[in-house]
Every structure is written in C-alpha cells, then in structure tokens.
C-alpha cells in the first residue's frame, strides 16, 4: 500500500488529458509535490504542479528529467500516443512509432526513476495500459499496449523485492484529445484518475476502470470468437 498524501509524484504527459486530471486528483489527495511533464513544459498550466520537459522516446531527455526530479517516490507512466497506422499499408516508421512511445518510452522512464525511488526508500510505479491491451483494434497501438501490459507484469516481479509496487491501469475510451474524432461512449477522465489513484493507495496489481474493460477481460479465456464478431460467420 502506498500513501499519496505527502508523496512526491511524477506524471508523464501531465499537461493534458488523463495526465492533467491525475495531477489535479493528486493535489486533492494531498501529494507533497507533483511533477507534470510535457514536451513543451510551458503547456503545463496547473498552478500547483512543477512543470518538467520530457520526450519519452529520447534517452537524453529522460535522463535530464530524472536528474531534476531526484525526490520522486511515485512514477505514473501516462504519456502515450495513438498513431493509428495500418499494419499492411503504413510506412514502417509509423508502425514503429506507437511502440517507441508506448512501450520503449515508459521503459526508459522507469529505468531512469527506479534508482531514484529506491534511494528515497521505495514507492510505486503505475503504467497506463488500455482495454486494447486485450483487444486488437487493427493497429500497432493495441500491440504497443499489449506489450506494455507484459512489460508491467515482468517489472512488478523484479521491483517487488526492491520495495517498489507496480500497478497496471486498463481503460477503454476516455474523453480526451486522443479520442476527439471517435464517436462512441467515453469515460470521464476524472473517474479514471480516481480509480487509478485508489489502485495505487490500495496496492492493486491491476485497475480495470470501466465496464467495457471488465467485459473484454472476462472474455479472454473464451477464445478469439468471443471478442471478434467478424470470426463468427
Ligand atoms: N483516451 C483514451 O481513450 C485512452 C484509453 C486507454 C488508454 N489511454 C492511454 O492514456 C494515456 C493518456 O492518454 P490521453 O487520453 O490523456 O491522451 P492525450 O490527451 O492525447 O494526451 C497524451 C499525453 O501523452 C503525452 N505524450 C505523447 N507522446 C509523448 C512523447 N513522445 N513524449 C512525452 N509525452 C508524450 C502528451 O504530452 P504533450 O502535451 O507533450 O503532447 C500528452 O500529455 C495514454 O497512454 C493513452 O494511450 C487513453
């Protein structure tokens, strides 16, 4: 169990979307200091947050952020991108981009901050996955979130004896810039932030933030036909 009250937390992609809502909710729960990263830190407008520049795919940028935030005890790997590339028709560079941002990015950040959290007496890492970790949507985005889920499951075992707990957050559509062109029911980012932080405080290994995500997970053992209606005919 990890207390948020008084903790020093770093939220990647904390300037907008789910990340900004996490920053707001962290303040509401009495976090001692909250670093909010953005590629352009001037876009971080929350008055209580400490803005920090971070491009998660750039090792030098990650190292510089870790250098500046030596007091972190909770890391939230929230930053992510959805390129919606096509496996068969997009340039390979675009196919690789989701993996660079959503899989290698959080790994670079975690590798940089694990020694920091350890030096500060242990703490917590939360990785933002997706319902699409368990449901392929035809794009490398879902592959990147499946890979991140697996990464989280391995890191949880490696970090537990080092005093760092690990939570994976899964959620379906959320009402942010990422889904602005999608016409479908979407969760409120505030509900997602509340569920994520409840999970950290409870020491949950996994947080399923909405009914759609819970349904998708419940179908996994039933075989591909249960999740992909196209396979039934
Ligand atoms: N929205 C959904 O439906 C949904 C569903 C499931 C999971 N998620 C996941 O939730 C997380 C947050 O998404 P969101 O919905 O809040 O999306 P969003 O509003 O588009 O925000 C994306 C955030 O990620 C940051 N980011 C993107 N690429 C980055 C990079 N290369 N380096 C550093 N920061 C980068 C952005 O920072 P800048 O401000 O610098 O651009 C921004 O803060 C993502 O991991 C996403 O995959 C979203």
From TrEMBL:
InterPro entries, per database record: NAD(P)-bd_dom_sf, SDR_fam
SUPFAM superfamilies given in the database record: NAD(P)-binding Rossmann-fold domains (SSF51735)
Keyword ATP-binding: no
Molecular function terms, GO-annotated: oxidoreductase activity
Keywords carried by this UniProt record: Oxidoreductase
Pfam family, one: adh_short
Similarity-based family: Belongs to the short-chain dehydrogenases/reductases (SDR) family.
NCBIfam families: PRK08264.1-5
Protein name: Short-chain dehydrogenase
